[in-house]
Design a protein that fits this description.
Number of strands of chain B: 0
Largest interface: A-B, 34 and 24 residues
Low-confidence stretches of chain B: none
Number of helices of chain B: 11
Order of helices and strands of chain A: EEEHEEHEHHHEHEHEEHEHEEHEH
Structural class of chain A: alpha/beta
Oligomer: heterodimer
Helix content of chain A: 25-40%
Strand order of the largest sheet of chain A: 6-7-8-3-9-10
Structural class of chain B: mainly alpha
Order of helices and strands of chain B: HHHHHHHHHHH
Number of helices of chain A: 11
Radius of gyration of chain B: 20 Å
Strand content of chain B: under 5%
Number of domains of chain B: 1
Helix content of chain B: over 70%
Low-confidence stretches of chain A: none
Distance between the termini of chain B: 26 Å
């Protein structure tokens, strides 16, 4: 196990931000850490990065206990904060050199590493421009380069693609995909669910200071993903109509005014739905099929825990 | 040691690129030039304003007077410039979260604090020395009648330098205590400008770093016998302040 958190607790005064958080991340895995804004994702990331302390619980990183090895672990972990802040008067090359010197690298090693990383994050052409003039996406890419400077085995990425334009997001996602090929364990915090679906192996949902769901993404899809039919009736739907629908293959029914969302088994197709609707004998305006996604799973799991 | 070296270079770069060294130099050296000139012109200006008035009572129109005027301005105005320029040394880094990446990269906090102190201590000490030398030569040109020994001026500049090193450690400490640099600046300036009041209480005046300003103003070899002890005491204050700053920075949560 590369990252293990057991019963992690963090309080700010009387406010308990993390209330017994548990998760496990295996070596080489990309772990998607999901949650609403302000739920404690960044706090968890800062704790894992050794930036802030915690009140209770145990954290093991690469088999090393965090309490006793906090300073040793810092060099093994790469951390990209949500909004990485650099010295604006430095160029990216100078900033990477500064980090290399902090880490104790010699001049030659710094030169080689700077070149490798600037190429990886596609900043080689802007390496001599002041960071103050960089776009948000460029800063994010520089942040990734900095977080990888020490060849970390574990990379903590806090909202790496939030507030980026589609091109910037795509670039960052591609870089993270490449990290997986390098065998780096990535702990990725985000609230952008489509990013998680694209790159993560495992997902953990943080809610009310606890992990309410942790599962491999493919297993999660098997368990939760299903078809949803959105049916628009001519008039508002009453309770009697809903009560008439008693098929075993219907997993859930959501109704709002004249719109009904019918969650059904995977093997059900439109013919079964049309047959069901004709039995109801109510005029309909439209019928649409959509596949549920991680967003639906997230909302469902959170609603179940409310 | 790695962090210390890296931060020495970083602070040096910041001092140049953000014009901090230049602002401090202007705040110190400008008066080295202006004060002798003002003292030279003052009798002529006042003569026109109040004809027949005995102007010799108003100021000491000698090189010594010019240098003493300069020291007065160093205390009143250069302190202000130094504090306002350096009040964000740590607080701006904490507020802007620029320390998060170095902190997550095994940075040594002692190295950060010491590097910041040493870079600006060196700069201030050198600039003060230059300021005194410029003031000495310019005042020598304007008041050639009674030339004082340069050794005395160098001694005074060193004593003043030690006093400024104390003020720097004070600003650094305040900057670690507040996230808003203006709060650190105001508190530092309050302590600095209230310290002459302590000087009025005879029993404790020698234990205040402001005592060094009084001694530097003497500009002769007749320093008080307590001066060496006072310098030593000021260095002890500096070590204590830096120690508290390091302790504070080790405890601070950067989120």
């Amino acid at each position: 196990m590369m990252i293990r958190a057991e019963n992690l607790t963090k309080r700010y005064g009387n406010n308990k931000v993390l209330n017994g958080v548990n998760f496990n991340v295996e070596k080489g895995e990309i772990y998607g850490f999901l949650g609403h804004n302000g739920v404690g994702k960044t706090t968890t990331m800062n704790i894992l990065a050794g930036i802030i302390g915690y009140n209770d619980g145990d954290i093991t990183l690469n088999s090393l206990d965090m309490k006793n090895n906090r300073s040793n672990l810092k060099g093994m972990i790469g951390y990209l904060p949500e909004e990485p802040k650099f010295y604006p008067y430095m160029t990216s090359n100078e900033y990477l050199t500064f980090i290399g010197e902090v880490l104790g690298f010699n001049k030659n090693k710094i030169k080689v590493r700077n070149k490798e990383l600037l190429e990886l994050v596609k900043l080689e052409k802007s390496s001599n421009r002041k960071i103050g003039g960089y776009s948000r996406g460029m800063k994010q890419r520089l942040g990734i380069a900095v977080s990888m400077y020490n060849n970390p085995e574990i990379l903590l990425l806090d909202e790496p693609s939030s507030a980026l334009d589609p091109t910037g997001r795509k670039d960052v996602i591609n870089i993270i995909k490449n990290l997986k090929n390098l065998g780096i364990t990535v702990f990725l915090s985000t609230h952008i669910l489509s990013d998680i679906e694209r790159i993560c192996d495992k997902v953990g949902i943080l809610y009310n200071g606890k992990i309410i769901l942790e599962e491999k993404l493919d297993m999660l899809k098997q368990r939760y993903l299903h078809s949803i039919y959105d049916i628009e009736f001519e008039n508002n739907i009453n309770q009697e109509t809903i009560d008439e629908i008693k098929e075993d293959w219907i997993k859930d029914i959501e109704v709002k005014d004249n719109i009904m969302n019918l969650h059904v088994d995977e093997n059900i197709d439109s013919r079964d739905i049309i047959a069901l609707l004709s039995e109801l004998n109510i005029p309909i305006l439209s019928l649409n099929l959509r596949r549920s996604n991680l967003e639906d799973i997230f909302i469902k799991v959170v609603n179940e825990n409310e | 040691m790695n962090s210390f070296t890296a931060y020495i270079k970083k602070e040096y770069m910041e001092g140049i690129r953000n014009f901090k060294f230049l602002i401090i130099a202007l705040g110190i050296i400008l008066f080295a030039l202006l004060d002798p000139l003002m003292l030279k012109l003052l009798p002529h200006i006042l003569e026109n304003q109040a004809p027949g008035m005995d102007l010799s009572q108003l100021a000491n129109y000698t090189q010594e007077g010019a240098i003493q005027n300069y020291m007065q301005n160093l205390f009143q105005i250069s302190n202000l410039v130094i504090v306002l320029t350096l009040m964000g040394l740590l607080s701006e880094e904490i507020k802007n979260k620029t320390l998060i990446i170095p902190y997550s990269n095994k940075v040594n906090i002692n190295g950060i604090v010491l590097a910041k102190y040493i870079v600006y201590a060196g700069a201030i000490f050198i600039i003060i020395l230059i300021g005194f030398l410029i003031n000495y030569y310019y005042s020598k040109l304007l008041f050639p009648e009674e030339i004082i020994n340069i050794g005395r001026v160098l001694k005074s500049s060193s004593i003043f330098g030690v006093y400024f090193l104390f003020n720097l450690s004070l600003v650094l400490l305040m900057s670690s205590l507040f996230r808003k640099s203006i709060a650190a600046g105001i508190l530092s300036l309050s302590i600095i400008y209230l310290s002459p009041a302590i000087g009025m209480i005879e029993k404790i005046s020698k234990f205040s770093p402001y005592y060094l300003v009084n001694q530097a103003n003497i500009l002769s070899d007749n320093y008080d016998s307590f001066l060496n002890k006072s310098i030593l005491l000021t260095f002890i204050y500096i070590f204590i302040f830096i120690g508290i700053t390091i302790y504070r920075m080790n405890k601070i949560e950067l989120d």
